[in-house]
Design a protein that fits this description.
Shape: globular
Radius of gyration: 20 Å
Structural class: alpha+beta
Order of helices and strands: HHHEEEEHEEHHEEHEEE
Distance between the termini: 34 Å
Largest sheet: 7 strands, antiparallel
Length: 242
C-alpha cells in the first residue's frame, strides 16, 4: 500500500522541514488504515520517489517514528508498523537479568468525574467526564501492581469491559483496533507512595505499605494527550524495570 501514490514534492506544502512532512504523511497513512500494525512499509527508495524527496529525507522521517515506537526496523527485512503494545515496564527479581512474565486482569471500567491530576493531564476541566480503567498486574499469579487509566469519555464513547477483555486488557490494542488511534508514551514520572486501603487489598499488603508510583501521559501521534495512567506496585519481592 502507499500513502501518496503518484504525488510529487509540490504536494508536501507547509513550513515544516521536509522530513517532518514525510513523517506527517506516514502518520496519516497509519491512522487512516493504509498500513496495519505489523505491516511492512514500502522501501525508502519507493517512498522517496512517490513523495518527490530524497531517500535521506525519507530515512530521517522514518527515524523519528522509529524513535517514538510507531515503526520498527528489522535487519534485512525493512521497516514495519509496530504492534500496538502497551509499553509498561516489567517486574524483575532484584538480582535478575531478565524481566519476569506478567499478566493483566481487568478489574473495572466505569465513568467517573476527572480528579485534578487526570483533568490536568488530559486537558479537561476538573470534574469532567472520564472513563476509568482499573487493571491488576500479576507475576506468577501473585499481585504485583495496580494500574488506573483515565481517558476522556466523549472521545471513547462505547468503550466497555467486553472490548477491553477481547484485547487481552491491552489498552493500546483497544485504542488502535476499536478507535483507529495510535498513541505513544511520554517519559514516566516516578515517586514514592504508600498503599491506600483499596491498593492494599488488591496487592495483598498492609495499608500504608510503601509502594512505587509510576505516572505517565500517552499522546496521539499529533501530540494531543489521550490517556493518563498511574501504576502502583509493591517492591518487597520484585523490582520495577523500564
Amino acid at each position: 500500500m502507499s500513502v501518496v501514490s503518484g504525488r510529487s514534492s509540490a504536494e508536501l506544502p507547509g513550513r515544516q522541514p521536509l522530513y517532518a512532512q514525510v513523517r506527517t504523511r506516514i502518520v496519516a497513512g497509519i491512522e487512516q488504515g493504509e498500513w496495519e500494525a505489523g505491516e511492512l512499509l514500502p522501501s525508502e527508495l519507493e517512498l522517496a520517489e512517490r513523495l518527490g524527496v530524497s531517500q535521506g529525507t525519507v530515512r530521517k522521517g522514518l527515524d523519528s517514528l522509529v524513535a517514538e515506537g510507531v515503526l520498527l526496523r528489522r535487519q534485512g527485512l525493512g521497516t514495519f508498523v509496530a504492534l500496538a503494545e502497551d509499553d509498561w515496564g516489567k517486574a524483575g527479581l532484584p538480582a535478575g537479568s531478565r524481566p519476569l512474565d506478567t499478566s493483566l486482569e481487568l478489574l473495572a471500567c466505569a465513568r467517573a468525574n476527572a480528579g485534578e491530576d487526570a483533568a490536568a493531564a488530559l486537558g479537561l476541566r476538573r470534574g469532567g467526564n472520564v472513563l476509568t480503567v482499573k487493571r491488576l498486574v500479576r507475576v506468577a499469579g501473585e499481585p504485583f501492581a495496580v494500574i488506573d487509566s483515565f481517558v476522556a469519555a466523549e472521545r471513547f464513547d462505547g468503550l466497555d469491559a467486553r472490548r477491553i477483555k477481547q484485547a487481552n486488557c491491552n489498552l493500546r490494542t483497544v485504542w488502535w483496533r476499536e478507535f483507529g488511534l495510535r498513541v505513544v508514551s511520554n517519559p514516566p514520572q516516578f515517586r514514592a507512595g504508600v498503599a491506600g486501603r483499596e491498593e492494599a487489598r488488591l496487592l495483598g499488603v498492609l495499608e500504608d505499605m510503601p509502594v512505587l508510583e509510576v505516572a505517565r501521559v500517552a499522546s496521539g501521534l499529533d501530540g494531543e494527550p489521550v490517556e493518563w495512567s498511574v501504576l502502583r506496585c509493591r517492591t518487597d519481592q520484585y523490582v520495577y524495570r523500564v
